[in-house]
Amino acid sequence: MKVLAFSDTHSLHKELLTDELKEKEAEVIICAGDFSSNNNNFYDFAEWFGKLNIKHKILIAGNHDEELHYNKDSSKYILKDNGIIYLEDSEIIIDNVKFYGSPWTPIYFHYSFMKTETGLKVMFNKIPDDTNVLITHGPAYKILDKTNLNLNVGSYSLKNKIETLKNLKHHVFGHIHTDFGTIIENDISFHNVSCILKKNKFLTEFEI
């Protein structure tokens, strides 16, 4: 199964619709949050994402995606109507691969889907033990989580939970724009798929 992933387009998602994306053959595409710039393009993104010629389109929210925080019921209906799979502390199985998505990140100013580490521990403990592909908006501590000030800002609770997931093969996330890339640790591929510093045209690709 080929998977494409991106996050943090911040209203510039249409710049991803290049000839390269049109030609890619993938079964799944993932947006790991922050497609919005503080709530100003939810409907436009839903229409664009829904029209991509990829069978399974998975979305989680990020801290800037206020529409999914404050108008959840109507937003989920619109996403479903556009053929988008929305995961919020929930899972979906595609071709025997379990995807699990969660939007929560450590508190930073007054944005959406943020909690203290105590609250994050509660949310991340919901991740099923047999998860194969984990999608969160933010990174785990010290895994592609460095800011431009060289600070590690990932979640301790998420890191601790990941260490217990014996079937996990891929962790997809964004949020920290400055630490884009992929690393492998303990047979898990960690993908920071933030796009905004890559001129919004770079998709991460992997197989599972």
Tell me what you see in this structure.
The structure is a single chain. The radius of gyration is 15 Å and the shape is globular. The chain has a single domain (2-207), classed as Purple Acid Phosphatase, chain A, domain 2 (4-Layer Sandwich), CATH 3.60.21. By secondary structure, it is α/β, with parallel strands linked by helices. Strands 5-6-9-10-12-11 form a 6-stranded mixed sheet, with no helix packed on it. A 5-stranded mixed sheet has the order 4-3-2-1-13. The protein has helices spanning 19-23, 42-50, 66-70, 72-81, 117-124, 156-162, and strands at 2-6, 28-31, 56-59, 84-86, 90-94, 97-102, 105-106, 114-115, 133-136, 170-173, 181-185, 188-192, 204-207. Strand 11 (181-185) and strand 12 (188-192) form a beta hairpin. Helices cover 21% and strands 25% of the residues. The protein contains 6 helices and 13 strands. Helix 5 runs parallel beside helix 6. The relative contact order is 0.19.
Keywords:
alpha/beta; 208 residues; Purple Acid Phosphatase, chain A, domain 2; 5-stranded mixed sheet; 6-stranded mixed sheet
Domain count: 1
Order of helices and strands: EHEHEHHEEEEEHEHEEEE
Q: What CATH architecture do you see?
A: 4-Layer Sandwich
Strand content: 25-35%
> Could you state the CATH homologous superfamily?
Metallo-dependent phosphatases
Distance between the termini: 5 Å
